[in-house]
Amino acid sequence: MLAYIIGVVLFALGICVSVALHEAGHMVTAKAFGMKVRRYFVGFGPTVFSWRRGETEYGLKWIPLGGFCDIAGMTALDEVTPDEAPRAMWRFKTWKRTVVMSAGSITHFILGFVVLYLMAVTMGLPNLAPTQTEPVLAATSCARSTTTEEQAKDTSCPPGAPTPAKTAGLQPGDKVLSVGGKPVATWDEMLATVQATSGPTAFQVLRGGQTLDFTVDVPKVQRWTSTGVKTVGMIGASAQPPALTTQYGPVAAVGATFSFTGTMFAETAQRLVEFPERIPAVVTAIFGGERDPNTPVSVVGASRIGGEAVQQGIWVLFFFLLASLNFFIGVFNLLPLLPLDGGHIAVVWYERVRDWIRGLRGKAAGGPVDYTKLSGITMVLVLIGGAVTLLTVTADIVNPIRLQ
Q1: Whole-number Å distance between alpha carbons of 243 and 224
Q2: Which of 78, 114, 228, 393 shows the smallest number of beta carbons within 10 Å?
Q3: Is the pLDDT of residue 138 over 90?
Q4: Is the pLDDT of residue 128 over 90?
Q5: Which has the closest alpha carbon to 233: 243, 250, 218?
Q6: pLDDT tens-digit profile of 335-392?
Q7: CB atoms within 10 A of CB 102
Q8: Rounded to whole angstroms, how far apart are CA atoms 285 and 165?
Q9: Residue 277 bears catalytic tag
Q10: How many CB atoms lie within 10 A of CB 208?
């Protein structure tokens, strides 16, 4: 139980740090361009403590859920003092405002990449679709039929019987290089070659860095399969399970992390597309239905899964979830919807394109967008976002997703 609590706290802390660094990304880029940053706080609610350095007040608030960065004049409607007016954010060039507003999401992407890189060089990156490729033996015992009914009919390899592979000297961990002089690169190739073979057959294997030769007397046996009885060659060996993770050296990990990050971006985009259609399943889960593991989770749900991962010692899953959440927050925040950063970026580029078109028509620039005209849409989106958050938090409390 203690490990679970520690896991939940660590995961929640990781999220808080990520969001705090998100706001720090806005602050650092705004200061770099000369915009005035009034305040940078971690958390919300009453202030625990604060201090002023230069023109910016820094501090910590009691509710550790994110933070905020107060940049003077983010929109033309924001009140600014006379000395702040020349440095108001809305007066800066489009590309500079875009960089500042996207810096939060970019920070999440960097954090996710760093977490994945550290995983790659330490515990390894998860194999999202693990498959058995190399012909490595897990055991020199019978590979039985798959279903109980077929196993009952299968007498080709009774329990405790010596197998041809074991009799010949093959051992678990041996990597088969060739069968009957024919090179094999995958387990499927080896299996097909063995099944087409009978009698004394040469096997070349790699064991502990040494190449060894064996002769296996391959019998022809009748095996029950889903399509009926089939006569095949059999040596009595099973495949080594595919690795759940792959570890890399410091240099190779860079390319592997970039590739893995690309895969995660694609999956994040797919989850965002499917997000609306999965909401009904969340509602069903709240009222007692089975919780679909593919339904959206809140920070509460993610923290609970992180806690279970630590409790079970699956640190790979813990850090993978943390990286995934950073990518998701980063991509979600760039959606062109107010009040997200992506919504503000969309408004900025609307102004830029509009003024460019007006310039082609010989007209003056149209000025900043009136955000009051967008307040209705913004409020609707805020209400929808709040409702979705409430649903996912409720589901994660009453019917959480659990590790199997």
Answers
A1: 29
A2: 228
A3: no
A4: no
A5: 218
A6: 999 889 999 999 999 999 998 998 888 888 888 888 888 888 889 988 988 898 899 9
A7: 21
A8: 50
A9: no
A10: 8
Q: Which of 390, 380, 402 is nearest to 299 (CA)?
A: 390
Q: Residue 33: exposed, middle, or buried by beta-carbon count in 10 A (0-12, 13-18, 19+)?
A: middle
Q: Distance of CA 178 to CAs 18, 96, 372, Å? A: 51, 61, 74
Asked if residue 184 lies in contact with residue 192, where contact means CB atoms within 8 angstroms, the answer is no
Quick: pLDDT tens for 227-270. Answer: 567 788 888 887 777 777 888 999 999 999 999 999 999 888 88
pLDDT-derived band at 150, boundaries 50, 70, 90: very low
What does the DSSP 8-state code read for residue 210?
Answer: E
How far apart are alpha carbons 317 and 152 in whole angstroms? Answer: 38
Write down the pLDDT at residue 404: 66
Q: Rounded CA gap, 111 and 206, in Å?
A: 40
Contact 306, 9 (CB under 8 A): no
Largest pairwise CA distance in the chain: 94
Closest C-alpha to 275, from 261, 258, 296, 301:
296
SS3 317: helix
Chain center to CA of 280:
23
**Mean pLDDT, the chain, whole residue set:** 86
As a whole number of angstroms, the distance between CA 264 and CA 247 comes to 18
Whether residue 10 contacts residue 306, with contact meaning beta carbons closer than 8 Å, is answered with yes
Q: Cα 75 to chain center, whole Å?
A: 34
Integer Cα distance of 73 and 90 in angstroms = 6
Consecutive H or E run containing 232: strand 228-233
Average pLDDT (106-124) is 95
Tokens encoding 81: 């003092």
- What are the beta bridge partners of residue 253? none
- Annotated catalytic residue: which of 23, 57, 79, 274? 23
Cα–Cα distance for residue pair 126/236, rounded to 1 Å:
30
DSSP 102-142: HHHHHHHHHHHHHHHHHHHHTT-EE-SS----S-BEEESS-
- DSSP-derived secondary structure letter, 177: E
- N-to-C CA span, the chain: 17
Percent pLDDT > 70 in the chain is 91
Q: Could you give the CA distance from residue 232 to residue 198 in angstroms, rounded to a whole number? A: 8
Q: Find the radius of gyration of the CA atoms of the chain.
A: 30
